[in-house]
Amino acid sequence: MSQNSNPSPSIVLVMGKTGVGKSTFIKAATGLDVSIGHHLDSCTALLQIYPIPNTTTFLLDTPGFDDPSISDTSVLQSIASCLADISEGLLFPNLAAQISGTIYIHAINEPRMTGSMMRNLSMLRLLVGEGNMEHCVLGTTKWGLEEPDVAEGREAELIQTRDYWGGFLAEGAVIERYGDSPESAREITRAAARRGDFVPRLMQEYAIEGIELSATAAGRAINGHVARARERNEREMEKLRAEYQSAMDDDSAESTAALHAVWLRIEERLKVIDEETEQLRATRLEAQKQLDELEEAAARTHHADDNVASSTLHLRDDGGEMSISTGIGSSDDGLSTLVTKKSDGQIARPRTTKDKIRARQKPALRWFGRFAALGCAIAISVLTSGGMTPVGLSLVVVVEAACQEDKNPEAERRRTAKRA
User: Fold this and answer.
1) DSSP state for residue 207 in the 8-state scheme
2) Does residue 310 contact residue 299 with C-beta atoms inside 8 Å?
3) Parts of the chain with a pLDDT under 50
4) What is the pLDDT of residues 111-146, one digit of tens each?
5) Chain-centre distance of CA 32, in angstroms?
6) What is the pLDDT of residue 367?
7) What is the pLDDT of residue 74?
8) DSSP string covering 383-397, please?
9) CA pair distance 118, 132, nearest whole angstrom
10) Alpha-carbon dihedral 358, 362, 364, 369, rounded to 10 degrees
11) Would the CA dihedral through 402, 406, 407, 413 be positive or negative?
12) Which one of 141, 241, 270, 273 is most buried, by most CB atoms within 10 A?
């Protein structure tokens, strides 16, 4: 089978508020122990990719936009960077992955729609895009933790309220119940991918059009949250300034010390807000540099743990079709690996962070080589009054041949296998 006849990996995003059961859902769909890091590979330091056995489908696990340990800005930047990697063909070596659907997870035992839930719903719309709702499944989990009539009443409220799920459903999204089984999880995944590949709004804006993150629809929303947080903290600091002055006038050392400690905490929060604002303004290359540094640090941490288990994936050639099978075993180097088996017996691993950086740099390096060779050829011709022109032209031909070889997928695969 030729390289071009291999089916593209199909990626389904899994989104939702923190704690709604995303990890449980992915574990059921993939058979992998998500909680201890049996992921296929990291798209970024915050996003993990998991394969569904015997398919070419992957689940991309994303943090919620309310995670207490991660800022919303970092979550958005990681998702945007991962979508850009997918758009640029950097996620898998020699295989062009595509986004085929989105699954939004909601816990049915939640008694009410909180501000955090509404924010995650809003980000779902901004990330996916209003015209792409037919590629979205709204999945409910934790039915076993609630009385059936109560759970069904909440589901009906979600469906009937336009500001909850009603608007999404009117635009083509579908609703599914997760039945706490592998087959149920995989059926929901199939429903998400039923319409085929699409380009999410964030990918279109950030990766294809090259808009900076703060100017994307999702970035503007996060920027608004950050700006409001700054206003709240500045109002609190202004109020604190008056109280601090009053305590000093009263010569109350205890009150002054307590107020000073609060002041320092607010200053620290404002510093973090300023950092998030700059993070949103970062260009694609600047943001990627930050994420690459995070990934390298994460890789070093995992490398130090010899007991981390890994997931191995095989794209298997079965009578003209490709399928995925996975197996869990201990990793010699503590890093999860992807092994892609082609019909010709060649093996390639997924791109590591260094591989991705190298892939981004290659086009520029190839053009630099071409211009350098052309410059040398002209210089040789001028200095020898045309006597050595054939030598200069030969140099140009050799460099161009090397550039074409560098772009050759087969050569790339051999180099990747050699590095592995």
Assistant:
1) I
2) no
3) 1-4, 36-42, 44, 304-354, 413, 416-420
4) 999 999 999 999 999 999 989 999 999 999 999 999
5) 19
6) 67
7) 86
8) HTTTTTHHHHHHHHH
9) 19
10) 130
11) positive
12) 141
Here the tokens at position 112 are: 């009410």
**Nearest residue to 315 (alpha-carbon basis) of 98, 96, 101, 53:** 53
Q: Which residues partner with 138 through β-bridges?
A: 104, 175
- The contacts of residue 201 (CB under 8 Å, 6+ apart) are 126, 127, 128, 129, 130, 132, 216, 217, 218
Contact between 13 and 102 under an 8 Å Cβ cutoff? The reply is yes
CA torsion sign for 358, 360, 361, 364 is positive
Do 155 and 119 touch, CB atoms closer than 8 A? no
| CA nearest to 309, candidates 331, 339, 333 | 331
Q: What pLDDT does residue 73 have?
A: 87
3-state DSSP assignment of residue 331: coil
Residue 417 is encoded by which pair of tokens? 């296998």
- pTM equals 0.67
Return the axis-axis angle of helices 284-303 and 72-87, rounded to nearest 10°: 100
CB 37 within 8 A of CB 7: no
CA distances from 39 to 46, 69, 297, 311, 398 (A): 12, 20, 17, 6, 43
User: What amino acid is encoded at 217 in this protein?
Assistant: A
| CA–CA gap between residue 278 and residue 347 (Å, rounded) | 41
Quick one: tokens of 343? Answer: 């019909």
How many Å is the Cα radius of gyration of the chain? 26
* Alpha carbon separation from 305 to 167, 332, 412 (Å, rounded): 46, 10, 30
pLDDT of 411 reads 53
Residue 370, Cα to own-chain centre: how many angstroms?
34
Question: Measured between alpha carbons, how far is 126 from 16 in angstroms, rounded to an integer?
Answer: 14
Shortest CA distance to 222 belongs to which of 411, 77, 42, 40?
A: 77
Q: Render pLDDT for 316-350 as a digit per residue (tens, 0 to 9).
A: 334 443 444 333 333 333 223 333 333 333 323 34
